[in-house]
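Good morning C.,

I know you're traveling, so I'll keep this short. The sequence:
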Amino acid sequence: AYFTATNTEDNKQYPIGPTNSNGYAYREGLPYGIYKVVETVFPENYTTSGTSQWTVTLNSSNKGVAVINAVNKLKTGSIEVYKKDVNGVGLSGAVFTVYDSSGKTVTTIGPTNSNGYAAKADIPYGNYRVVETTFPKNYKAHGQTEWNVTVSGANNGVITVHATNELKKGHIEIIKTDAEDGRNLSGAEFTVYDSSGKVVTVIGPTNSRGYAKSGEITYGSYIVRETKIPEHYQAGAKTEWSVKIDDDAPLITLDVTNDRQYGSVRVTKIAEDGLEQGLVFSLTGRSVYGDTVDMKVAVDENGIALFERVPIGSGYVLSEENTPDRYVIPADKTVNVEWNKVTESFFENILKKWRAELYKLDADTLGNPQGDATLAGAVYGVYKDGQLLDA
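The tokens, ready to paste straight into the viewer:
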């Protein structure tokens, strides 16, 4: 530091300084009188702290010695931060911590505003470490997160930090089950679309535990659609989901069920004597889902026995359960049931038949080996309930 002492009577000036490493400087041999003392040169990076000029008197009462205690303070500058995403859009909510060379916290900067800007003034000149300590919601580091800076007279004491963040990434997981018994279903696939309809990724196929998980998906809003259904199943009540991956839900879990596939079996029944209604048919076997099927349906007034909502499968056996004694029992039939189709089957009841053989003999010649005991030309009628059936 340098000072100038000016005699107020003759305006003669006396330089004092520079101060030494102990901050001390003096000037001898000044005539007694009144002096105006001004700090004319401040130490590097320092400025006045309160008073920078003094009026003192040198006389016999103070033995010609005047002591001035001059206090300086470091100059101050500022650190400003610009926080943006990878597309150059400002991000709010970021906070930066400023540490001195000893690691002590000096101040914090932020949170950044909607334009991604924050600043802190009155930071004393010196060396600092600036660290991004709070990221905006849903964002993480992209590149540099620490900066070593020197606040000084360069750039008018303003330090500018440019920081970039990128959206975090999360996941979507699928749990796929049978809607009826909760068994795990493999082979399902789901497609993830962004807001513009562009395919982001495909999840699946689900494994033997009915599970599939996506790779990393950038935070955001998406549409998930089931685009491949497990074999022998059909879509459940819901096939599309709107999801949002963010800090509140970094992992989206979708529990998705599929409905089984069903078909129908329609039996058309006729009988030789017209009997239709009241006969019962059974349908037995094992579906493709491994379940035992045992269904019974009676023939309606139209001669139809309709088995509805039959699980798909092959090798089902159709049997007539209560065939009246007068009919020949029809043979069982094997049918296959396909999804959303009606399998047709036909049963006919045939009356049991009997045969009568009649021999007309001459009673007089019966037993005579030389005579012909048979007689031609006789006619017999076959009656049932008083009605002639045949002759």
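Safe travels,
E.
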